[in-house]
Specification:
By secondary structure, the chain is an alpha/beta fold. The protein has nine helices and 17 strands. It has helices spanning about 30-45, 60-70, 80, 100-110, 125-135, 150-160, 195-210, 305-315, 325-345, and strands at about 10, 20-25, 50-55, 70-75, 90, 110-115, 140, 165-175, 215-220, 235-240, 245-250, 255-265, 270-275, 280-290, 290-295, 320, 345-350. The N and C termini lie far apart (about 40 Å). The relative contact order is 0.21. Belongs to the Gfo/Idh/MocA family.
Length: about 375
Amino acid sequence: MARQQGRTRGAAGRGKKATRQVGYAVVGLGHFAQDAVLPAFENAKDNSRLVALVSGDPEKSRELGERHGVPVFGYDRYEECLALPEVEAVYIALPNSLHAEYAVKAARAGVHVLSEKPLATSEAECREMIRACEENDVRLMTAYRLHFEQANLTAVEAVREGKIGDPRLFTSTFSFQIQAPNIRLERDKGGGVLWDIGVYCVNAARYLFRAEPVEVFAFCDRSDDERFTETEEAASVVMRFPEGKLAAFNVSFGAEAVATYRLVGTEGELKLDNAYEYKGELRWELTSQGKTRKGKVKERDQIAPELLTFSDCILEGTEPEPNGWEGLADVRIISALYESARTGQPVKLEPFEKPQRPTKEQELHRPPSEEAELVNVEAPTQ
C-alpha cells in the first residue's frame, strides 16, 4: 500500500505577507511554458521570481533571456544552472519522458521541484522522484492547476456538502484537433492522448469521488490519419470505484474541442464546461433538490496559484497539495489503462492510500496574465 507523509499545506497567499521571493528556473520553453508559466510570475511576485531559463533552442534562449533579464542555460549546462545560489526551485515543463531525469537531478542538487503532469510515464519513475526529493529534503509538487481553480473546487465543495446526494456517475469528454508535428504525438517523448489529456479526467474523477479506483478498462484506437502513426488518436475509459461509483470518459486528439464533465448523484447533478482549459471562462450548472442554478467563472491566471502555494511550502517547510503522491496516483492508473488497452482486459489496482484531497480552501484568485509574445513555438491545437 502506498503512503504519503509530511505535514501538508493546501493553500497560500491568504493575507500573510511572504518573507521573501523563491527563485525559480523554468526548464523547457515550449508553448505552455511561454504562454502560461513565464507570464504567471508577475501574478506570483509576492513570493516567487524567475531567475533562470533552460532551453536547447538558441532563438528562444536569446530572445526570452533578454526579455526576462535572466541567464539561459542549455540542457548540457543544467547542473550549472542548478548550482546558482538564486535557483531554489525548478518548474519542469519538458516532454513527459524527461520529467523524472530532470527532477531527480534537481533534487540531488538540493533544488525543489514543481513538475508538470503527468509526473512521469511510469510508477517507478514517480517513486524515484519522490524518493530523491525526500532523501534530499526538498519539496515535490505536481502541477495540477485545477486544484486551485474556483469552478472545480466549488464542484468539490458541492459534493462534500451533499448537494447532489451520494455521487454515483462521472462522465467526461476532453478533445481537440491536434496540430502536427507535436511532442504529444511522439511515443518516445511520452506522447499519447491518455498521458496528455486523459490525466485531467482521471484526476477530476478522483477528486470529485474523493476515492481511488479499484479496477479500470480502456479502449485505444486511431483512424488512418497520418498524425497518429506513433500514438493513439482516442481512448474510451471506464473506472470502477468503491461503493458502486463509476467513472467513464472519452478523450481524443482528432475531434472538435470539448472539455466538459458531469457528476450525477442520488439527489442531483453538476456539470462543468470548459472544465480543464487554462484560458476562457468556465461555466457550471448545479441541480439540487429539484432546482437548477447556473453560473460562470471568468478567466483567471491558473499558474500563479501553483507558484504561490509551492513557494509558501518551500518557505514554511510544509508538504504541498498536490504533492508527488498525487502525481503517482494518476500515473499508476494511466499505466493500467494502457495495459488494459493492450490486453483487452480490465486491470485491477492495488489499494492506494491518499488521505489528502483538494478543498475549497485552496482556491487562489489572480487576474489573467498578460498575453505573451511567443518565440519559435506553435499552439498544439489546429
